[in-house]
Amino acid sequence: MLASQVQKISGENPLACYQCGNCTGSCPMEFVMDYGPRRLIHLLQIGYDDEVLKSNTIWICASCYNCTYRCPRKISFTRMAFALKNIAMKKNIIPKKCKAFYETFLKHVLNYGRLNESLFINELVLKGGKDFSEIVRDINLGIKLWRKGKLKMKISKIDGVKDIVKLYNLTKDVIK
Amino acid sequence: MKLGLYPGCSLEGLENSYLVSLVKSFEALGINLEEIKDWNCCGATAIPSINVEFSYLLVARNLALAENSGLNIVITPCSECYNRLAYVNYKIKNDEAFKNRINNYLKEIGLRYDGNVEVKHPVDFLVKSFGIDKIKQKVKKPINKRVASYYGCLFVRPREISIESAENPRTMDQIVEAIGGKPVNYGFKTKCCGASIIITRSDAALKLIRNILKSCKDNGAELIVTSCPLCHSNLDMQQEIVVKTFNEDIKIPVLYFTQLLGLSLGLNEKDLALDKNLTYEMIKL
């Protein structure tokens, strides 16, 4: 059951939710979600696991913790969404743009120990993390950033990269 | 008491002006910070989305390194980093089983963390530890402007890491007041800017940014100050795109609170990397 898997990873129990809807009322991203947080938790409770994992909800959550802050049952939808993303990614259920974003982010952490933002954005575009219309829209911004000297070409890499990779290898199979 | 600094990736990258202005204005207040050696990425919201367990370890390594160098407090200016560092630190300090689990992993890379470090956001440090009165005494050029403090999400939520109410926080407004500014009351102080959703769902994030800018403008703000590189890049860097997309006059200069603080302490614009802001040309002081 997906709900218990979520609890195992996040420590948050979806069954403890009594469906008051404070989370959805507080959610800034609800207007573009398939299901708001309350409905998603309900789907988890009644075992509609496929609907949950295939919903855009978990990828649209901006991790603002507004739902968490206001939940009278003191459970965190934000942290449930983290767990659901962990599980969905293992099953390769992930929108194309998100896949590009998360894979590139992880690559930077494992290769450099840090995120090199300027390089990250370039790689993201090459990996299909941006629509063509977005690239066109953002060209002016790119030129401005370059003119302002905000884009940094020097790579920042830590001495402990090996340790980071070791920690990753120790934990990568925790989620099945 | 040794004060550490965890800059985070964004302050090394696109939002370097936050780091520059933080270090300079803290120096002007007589506060010196020691950077954690060989710090790594905190994982932000991306790594917890990929692997929650790994995300704890990324934070724990930083905390262990800080403890090893004898740092008592780690100043963490990026709200995203602050959120991750403070939350994992809270869990380690309050959950013995969690602490043991994390240390079992850390042992593999020759580290250990005993929970002796405090993680503080610079706004919290200035208001609660350093003191508003001490800031007031050092002000040379009062900022006579109506200033909207934008707190965003991750400095005030969740409860475990927050120093004040997330519904209507006041700490940044207290700093604004101390340096001569007039705090603006508005309803979007802690409404989300979309953060990294600007990358994966820019259409939705642009709407959130528009609402924040509009609320600041409608309530008479002349400036916005931020305390997070993600908020800043969304409100400042994306502003021209927002204005074009919604075709509304919601242009407003966006500064880091450390830049405004630095100006009031008599530092010059160059020292505070003010010219790196995309809304720099709009600033009239």
Give an overview of the whole structure.
- Chain A is mostly helical and about 180 residues long.
- Chain A has two domains: about 1-90, Fumarate Reductase Iron-sulfur Protein, Chain B, domain 2; about 95-170, no CATH class.
- In chain A, about 60% of the residues lie in helices and about 0% in strands.
- Chain A has helices spanning about 1-10, 20-25, 35-45, 50-55, 55-60, 65-70, 75-90, 95-110, 115-125, 130-145, 160-170.
- Chain A is globular.
- The model of chain A has no long low-confidence stretch (mean pLDDT about 95).
- Chain B has about 280 residues and is an alpha/beta fold.
- Chain B has two domains: about 5-120, Glutathione S-transferase Yfyf (Class Pi), Chain A, domain 2; about 130-280, Rossmann fold, CATH 3.40.50.
- Chain B is about 50% helix and about 10% strand.
- In chain B, the strands form two sheets. Chain B has a four-stranded parallel sheet. Chain B has a four-stranded parallel sheet with strand order 6-5-7-8, sandwiched between helices.
- The relative contact order of chain B is 0.15.
- The mean pLDDT of chain B is about 95.
- Chains A and B meet through helix 6, helix 7, helix 8, helix 9 and helix 10 of A and helix 1, helix 3, helix 4, helix 9 and helix 10 of B.
